[in-house]
Amino acid sequence: MFNRSKVSMLTDLYELTMANVYFETGENGKAVFNFYLRQTEKRNFFIFAGLYELIQNILSMKFSKEDIEYLKSLNKFSDKFLKYLENFKFSGNLYSVEEGSVVFPNEPLVQIEAPLIEAQIIETFLINSLQLPILVATKSARCYLVANGKSLIDFSLRRTQGFDAGLKVAYASYIAGFSGTSNLLAGKTYKIPVFGTMAHSFILAYQNEERAFEEFTKFYPKDTVFLVDTYNTLEGVKKAVKVIKKLGLKNFKGIRIDSGDLVSLSKKAREILDNEGFKDTVIFVSGGLNEYKIEKLLKEGAKIDGFGVGTELGVSADLPYLDCVYKIAEYKGKPIVKFSKNKITFPYKKQIYRTFKDGKIYKDVVSHYNERLEGEPLVKEYIKDGRLVRDIPPIKDIRDYTLSQLKLLPDNLKDINKYHKFLPEFTPKILDTIQKLKIKYLG
């Protein structure tokens, strides 16, 4: 995990140059900033993730002596402002939807209410903290929805862009339905299940497939999952069976196939295992998998019990970034709207009200925070005056909540192959304010 003592410097230069000017001119009233996602036709919904790490980062944020010395060496900041940074501590409020929630574009997922300087300084690492977890949790949920109860394991660590990304992928995939990860550091850090089999190099090192299987089984008789496709997949399955019988074991955990025609090979492998009396032995597959391939394999009748999903999960290959933003929505009690082309923002501190029909999500309405509407309010206060006011749940509870949220999705939004537009409505108070400010500023 990223060293939280360094989070204060995980920012862009312009955040601090703006803050310096705010400080020197006394422009530091109460501001409200909203974090939200813009629309993309590659996703029908998103899973909100990354909140609790963000909260921990915000509450532990401070500038060290070394940080101040470095900033001073840039010759861009006043001594008084640097003195202010020496004593920096977030004193504001944080409002958010719950981690693991199903969410949609244009909804205020995280809102910061704080003195302008504080709200500005945390912008960059706030966006950085949330984008990847949301990306991966959403892609993981899509895999989960098409896997029909089959096991999913995160195999992405060697392909993620850095170890911190690897940790976030393991976390986000687990809360969104994966059974665990191959990442030991993630297992230790988050207390989530870890899984592993063997590599082709293990087979090749012994230069004899049968001997490699036998030596591994002697050490891990209860956890043996044979990688059977180094030479000839079906012969590998037969050799796995032969080794188990030779060692006098009644069963073995499974086989893994990492290449080839997974539909045909899994069917033939299942037949071999069943005929030999190993009906409980699972067939696990890996190799360039994603939600589209998982869905296709199962529709074509593949006899697969579990999937190892790596590269395409870890980098969210079909959607490698989100158009996510953090925009000022209110300052000194007055609404703020940006009118850039195709990037109009929404004013005020806000609430989201969700209504349901036949047990499924029906409509989301975004309101001014003080408006009271029909439905379930999704935005909750997590930090008040710089203090945590809501418990951070265990990861198992977050996972259970996420899976319960997926059950609320209408069938059309579960479709991974076709875009179904779902955007929140905004109350007249918000829309009328936008129109009035548009007239004021644009004529």
Give structural notes.
- With 443 residues, the protein is α/β, with parallel strands linked by helices.
- 41% of the residues lie in helices and 19% in strands.
- The protein is built from 17 helices and 19 strands.
- The strands form four sheets. A seven-stranded antiparallel β-sheet has the order 13-12-1-5-3-17-18. It has a six-stranded parallel β-sheet with strand order 7-6-11-10-9-8. A four-stranded mixed β-sheet has the order 16-14-15-19.
- Strand 10 (282-286), helix 13 (291-299) and strand 11 (306-309) form a beta-alpha-beta unit.
- The longest helix has 24 residues, at 123-146.
Mean pLDDT: 96
The largest β sheet comes out as:
7 strands, antiparallel
Number of strands: 19
The tally of helices reads 17
The number of distinct structural domains comes to 2
Question: What is the CATH class name of the largest domain?
Answer: Alpha Beta
Shape: elongated
| Unreliable residue runs | none
CATH third-tier fold name of the largest domain: nicotinate phosphoribosyltransferase
CATH architecture of the largest domain: Alpha-Beta Barrel
Terminal CA distance reads: 50 Å
Write out the strand line-up for the largest beta sheet, numbering strands in chain order. 13-12-1-5-3-17-18
Key words describing this protein structure:
alpha/beta, single chain, nicotinate phosphoribosyltransferase, six-stranded parallel sheet, about 450 residues, 2 domains, 17 helices
Please render the helix and strand layout as text.
Blueprint: H1 13-25, E1 30-37, E2 46-47, H2 51-60, H3 65-73, H4 79-86, E3 93-96, E4 102-103, E5 110-115, H5 116-121, H6 123-146, E6 151-154, H7 163-175, E7 180-181, H8 184-190, H9 200-206, H10 209-219, E8 225-227, H11 233-246, E9 254-257, H12 262-275, E10 282-286, H13 291-299, E11 306-309, H14 311-314, E12 324-331, E13 334-335, E14 350-357, E15 360-368, E16 376-377, E17 380-384, E18 387-388, H15 395-406, H16 411-414, E19 425-426, H17 428-442
Parallel strand pairs: 6-7, 6-11, 8-9, 9-10, 10-11, 15-19
Antiparallel strand pairs: 1-5, 1-12, 2-4, 3-5, 3-17, 12-13, 14-15, 14-16, 17-18
